[in-house]
């Protein structure tokens, strides 16, 4: 099987490129303040449309062009060119429900950059001054070598467009006054720029045109992260980066809903429909674009909503009444599975997105994303106590101050009941979807670190209920990005095992969502993400997704398949068949570069951090039966092709020769409260200068582990290749030690084995050279 490889591209270096016109419709973006909403879609090769909904007199949206492409993957980005003086932009402007071109606060082009002297500046160019036609239907021409700012041309100054960062067209509702008054309801408006053209010497930009080969992975992304870009740009990027199959698209928790004013705030509303107009327009285009490129869409809807706009009685609550708030800033909240109003709303939202998919001719995939009863991370309080939940649980309701640790029979019974309520809510949601689209494929997304938290072993009763067992859903989707980015691959493997054991979905009915990198400074985490994705493919998972497109673009994550031999060298986990005792010879070797000056001084550079061992196992051949066993073993290893275990007669344990290994023999490391896996090492020498030897082939049953000097009889396991995996990350500052016996991974040094029967009969031992393998 080919293996997955990747690199983080920060720029194009020889990859394909083409030319595009500056101000191409596909690459405009939008931005706006909460709680308003806007979106931009392309309607033709030379046209775009912005839809917006305004909730207050101070709401203002911007249609943005940036000199530097901050949103595309490095292999697909357009070049940075801040000089706009040699280009002329023309377009037809049409609008409705917005301030008109001829009004104060009408559509204005703001140009941000620096003047000819290098001082930061912003210029405000009234589009009406460059329009020909009416205030809602006009042709606008902007020659950036000769435009002026100001409400009236006579009042403004010349714009120096030679060093521009970005420019944007402002869009406002008819009632805009730069104030803070709430409108009685959402005010919808739109504008369309068509017949767009850019001419002049500066009108062309080089843009990446890389098309990566298919690599077997799919893309997961979310509307809350990419609402500002055109769907055409999003879907084309996914396809160009080699992702195929379905796009797992999280519809989000903060940008799809309609709002109504109440008591100085804004709350979710069904007035006028389910989805706000900009969201509906964006997703209709998104579905069409995916269909055109042969990509499917899994519509993902979670039980999470932006807290500021969520009705208070919809929220899960802890026993003291505290709402279930996530750690995002600003926070989101979790909806109570027991609240009929909240669950009915989710069903309507699901139906609205399914209708969009059907209209585009897509086969419907629907995901219930991370439904759970929230557990407060700081103290383990589980949020089962909102009014709707209290009513649903009835006599089963008891206090659970901390869901972690040992619970009473009554507390376990409450968790079981909570799981039943949760499972009933997800079943109703999926039944609604199948009522709208009978052929829909339903998916459940479970976040393993929460539902299988080793500190809260009983929480799965509520958050991975048996009511989810196959065939409740068509596909079980698993993700565990915290474990992945922390390098806790053993927990990933164990979590998948436990989830399958509990719910019973075969691997061909599973998807895996590999972790995402939240912050750009943590881009090194892509290594673990790629490894976890590759492992999912290798275990036969039906589809594996990378999460998510904005982070992939930000860090330049670029993956591909390498065909041919595995990156891990072939190794047979068997021991050399002959006992050689102390008669075998061993030769540790380093590689040191020595440069001698004319004065006799030396400069020494060590190429290897560890010695590489060579052995001659010939003295172990003591009989013709041994010779036959050696030849058979050599042939089975295909000469030097395959590795095996060899017991070093001089150094095979963590302690002194002849002694029994103890749990305090060698250092494993120091706990930090996060890291859960530590490699076995054998140290030679003392202090900081000690040479550390990585042990990858410990002898089964000989490993002993201690934390702060106390041996652990459980709570850890050998995850393979000498990696000790703790069930719970050791506390910060905990001293970890281990004792063990070990073998050396070796191979035959040559593809030829010379054994002469006559010389052997005369008492001469054959030469059987072995050489250590680096693992």
UniProtKB/TrEMBL annotation:
User: Where would I find the Non-contractile tail sheath N-terminal domain in this sequence?
Assistant: 20-208
Non-contractile tail sheath TIM barrel domain span: 213-557
Cite the Pfam families for this sequence. Answer: DUF2460, NCTSP_N, TIM-barrel_NCTSP
As given in the record, the signal peptide range reads none
- For the DUF2460 domain, which residue ranges apply? 572-774
Output this protein's name: TIGR02217 family protein
Record lineage = Bacteria, Pseudomonadati, Pseudomonadota, Alphaproteobacteria, Sphingomonadales
């Amino acid at each position: 099987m080919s293996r997955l490889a990747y690199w983080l591209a920060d720029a194009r270096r020889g990859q394909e490129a083409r030319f595009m016109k500056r101000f191409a419709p596909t690459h405009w973006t939008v931005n706006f303040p909460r709680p308003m909403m806007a979106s931009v879609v392309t309607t033709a090769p030379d046209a775009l449309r912005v839809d917006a909904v305004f909730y207050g007199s101070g709401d203002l949206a911007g249609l943005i062009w940036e000199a530097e492409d901050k949103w595309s993957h490095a292999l697909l980005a357009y070049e940075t060119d801040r000089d706009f003086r040699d280009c002329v932009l023309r377009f037809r402007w049409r609008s409705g429900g917005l301030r008109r071109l001829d009004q104060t606060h009408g559509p204005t082009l703001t140009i941000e950059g620096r003047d000819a002297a290098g001082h930061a500046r912003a210029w405000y160019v009234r589009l009406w001054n460059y329009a020909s036609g009416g205030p809602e239907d006009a042709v606008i021409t902007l020659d950036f070598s000769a435009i002026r700012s100001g409400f009236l041309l006579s009042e403004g100054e010349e714009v120096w467009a030679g060093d521009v960062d970005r420019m944007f067209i402002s869009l406002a509702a008819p009632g805009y006054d730069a104030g803070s008054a709430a409108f009685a309801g959402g005010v919808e408006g739109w504008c369309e720029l068509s017949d767009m053209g850019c001419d002049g010497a500066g009108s062309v930009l080089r843009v990446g045109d890389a098309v990566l080969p298919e690599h077997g992975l799919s893309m997961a992304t979310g509307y809350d992260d990419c609402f500002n870009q055109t769907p055409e740009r999003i879907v084309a990027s996914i396809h160009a980066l080699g992702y195929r199959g379905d796009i797992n698209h999280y519809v989000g928790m903060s940008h799809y809903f309609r709002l109504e004013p109440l008591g100085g705030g804004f709350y979710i509303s069904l007035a006028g429909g389910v989805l706000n107009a900009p969201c509906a327009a964006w997703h209709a285009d998104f579905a069409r674009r995916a269909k055109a490129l042969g990509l499917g869409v899994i519509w993902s809807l979670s039980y999470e909503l932006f807290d500021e706009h969520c009705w208070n009685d919809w929220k899960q609550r802890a026993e003291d009444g505290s709402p279930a708030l996530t750690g995002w800033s600003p926070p989101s909240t979790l909806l109570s599975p027991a609240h009929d109003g909240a669950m009915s709303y989710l069903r309507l939202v699901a139906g609205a997105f399914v209708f969009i998919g059907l209209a585009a001719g897509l086969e419907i995939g629907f995901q219930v994303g991370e439904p759970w009863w929230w557990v407060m991370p700081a103290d383990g309080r589980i949020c089962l106590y909102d009014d709707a939940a209290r009513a649903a649980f009835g006599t089963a309701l008891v206090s659970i101050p901390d869901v972690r640790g040992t619970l009473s029979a009554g507390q376990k019974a409450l968790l079981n009941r909570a799981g039943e309520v949760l499972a009933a809510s997800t079943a109703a949601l999926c039944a609604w979807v199948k009522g709208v689209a009978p052929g829909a494929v339903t998916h459940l997304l479970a976040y393993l670190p929460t539902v299988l938290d080793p500190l809260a072993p009983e929480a799965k009763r509520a958050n991975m209920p048996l009511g989810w067992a196959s065939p409740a859903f068509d596909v079980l989707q698993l993700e565990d990005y915290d474990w992945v980015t922390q390098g806790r691959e053993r927990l990933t493997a164990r979590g998948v095992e436990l989830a399958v054991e509990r719910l019973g979905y075969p691997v061909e009915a599973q998807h895996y969502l590999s972790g995402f990198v939240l912050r750009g400074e943590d881009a090194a985490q892509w290594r673990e993400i790629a490894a976890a994705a590759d492992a999912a493919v290798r275990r036969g998972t039906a589809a594996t997704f990378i999460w998510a497109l904005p982070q992939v673009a930000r860090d330049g994550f670029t993956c591909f398949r390498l065909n041919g031999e595995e990156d891990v060298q072939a190794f047979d986990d068997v021991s050399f068949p002959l006992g050689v005792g102390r008669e075998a010879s061993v030769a540790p070797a380093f590689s040191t570069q020595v440069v001698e000056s004319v004065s006799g001084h030396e400069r020494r550079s060590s190429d290897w951090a560890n010695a590489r061992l060579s052995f001659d196992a010939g003295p172990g051949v003591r009989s013709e039966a041994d010779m036959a066993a050696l030849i058979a073993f050599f042939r089975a290893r295909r000469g030097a092709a395959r590795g095996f275990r060899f017991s070093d007669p001089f150094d095979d344990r963590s302690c002194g020769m002849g002694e029994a290994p103890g749990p305090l023999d060698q250092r494993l490391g120091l706990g930090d409260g996060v890291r859960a896996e530590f490699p076995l090492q054998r140290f030679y020498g003392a202090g900081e200068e000690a040479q550390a030897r990585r042990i990858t082939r410990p002898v089964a049953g000989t490993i002993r582990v201690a934390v702060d000097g106390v041996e652990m009889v459980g709570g850890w396991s050998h995850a393979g290749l000498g990696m000790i995996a703790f069930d719970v990350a050791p506390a910060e500052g905990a001293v970890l030690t281990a004792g063990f016996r070990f073998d050396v991974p070796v191979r035959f040094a040559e593809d030829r084995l010379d054994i002469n029967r006559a010389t052997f009969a005369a008492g001469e031992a054959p030469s059987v050279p072995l050489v250590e393998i680096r693992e």
